[in-house]
Design a protein that fits this description.
60s Ribosomal Protein L30, Chain: A, Phosphoribosyl-aminoimidazole Synthetase, Chain A, domain 2, 4-stranded mixed β-sheet, 10 helices, disordered C terminus, binds magnesium ion
Length: about 325
């Protein structure tokens, strides 16, 4: 790390920790003020610890040049979405950031500010981590911890025939939002870009999932792909009827311009980055939790896609990371 910051260069590592990262601990005692070799987390009787990890690389998972506060917030929010899918209550995270060496202090401050804003919003604290230099693009990785009552985590493996397949909100906004950010689709009021850049993890469904859900995953790879992950883990087939997909007004406007509605809806169900939840549960859960039923769990394997009951071709089997 370079010395004084008269040219916008970052101060030394320990001063960066003090100025950028210690505030993100929000006083959490487990972080030990970021002054020790490690964090110490007391066990919580009656709870299981749920742990997830996500990484992102500029140019791969976020567009080149994306504002650093948005990069940080998306990293936290995608991790939070994974814990939301397990019905867990997040409390703290570990962070590793690799900065290109020319990155100035203001840019690093913007990244930390993004974590500050969302750390407060979602009540999660930094517990430890590391910052390093890289000869490659900006990359960052986060490990997020949460608690769930013992034995009550909602896994992907619990779906059973007779359950219905439900989603927590609009499908396809993430993919259209990426198109909007990249200038491939005109997004009038910025709704789609916001859905892509700042997804909302569905932590609000935690108590309902614990009560009702037999299986759950967040929609990060695309609804069809993530439903497929549940099908594989559970040893069942998931049916999805594209006519029943909930779509936002902005996605409906995109659909209106597409000549083949079945293929177009298949694309919405193939896009990633929605960060809604796909849930299997008994029928009563739909009205209890305000979910939209899109199909049912069946004996078999894989995902069966229909449109109004008729077999539907699907143009994409989900987002594959390049
Ligand atoms: Mg996930």
């Amino acid at each position: 790390m370079s010395g004084p910051d008269e040219a916008g260069r970052p101060p030394g590592e320990f001063e960066q920790i003090a100025r950028l990262y210690r505030p993100l601990t929000r006083g959490a005692p487990e972080a030990l003020g970021l002054l020790d070799d490690a964090a110490v987390i007391p066990s919580r009787p009656g709870y299981d610890l749920v742990v997830t990890k996500d990484a992102l690389v500029e140019g791969v998972h976020v567009p080149w040049g994306e504002a650093r506060d948005l990069v940080a917030r998306k990293l936290l929010r995608t991790n939070l979405s994974d814990l939301a899918a397990k019905g867990a209550e997040p409390f703290g995270y570990f962070l590793a950031v690799a900065w290109p060496p020319e990155t100035d202090f203001a840019t690093r401050q913007a990244f930390a500010r993004g974590l500050q804003v969302d750390g407060e919003a979602f009540d999660v604290s930094l517990l430890g981590g590391d910052t390093v230099s890289t000869s490659g693009p900006l990359s960052a990785s986060m490990t997020l911890l949460g608690w769930v009552p013992e034995g009550r985590a909602v896994l992907r493996s619990g779906a059973r025939p007779g359950d219905l397949v439900m989603v927590s909100g609009p499908i396809g906004d993430g993919g259209l939002g990426l198109a909007a950010v990249e200038g491939r689709w005109a997004d009038g009021d910025g709704y789609l870009a916001r859905r892509y850049q700042l997804p909302t993890p569905r932590l609000d469904l935690r108590e309902g999932l614990e009560r009702w859900a037999s299986a759950c995953a967040d929609v990060s790879d695309g609804l069809i792909a993530d439903a497929g992950h549940i099908a594989t883990a559970s040893g069942v087939a998931l049916h999805i009827d594209l006519a029943r997909l909930p779509v936002s007004a902005a996605a409906a406007a995109w659909l209106a311009g597409q000549s083949d509605q079945v293929l177009a809806r298949g694309r919405l169900a193939g896009f990633g980055d929605d960060y809604e939840l796909v849930i299997t549960a008994p029928p009563a859960a739909a009205s209890a939790l305000g979910l939209t039923v899109v199909g049912q769990v069946e004996a078999g394997a894989g995902v069966r896609v229909t449109f109004d009951g008729a077999p539907a071709p699907v143009a994409t089997a989900g987002w594959t990371h390049p």
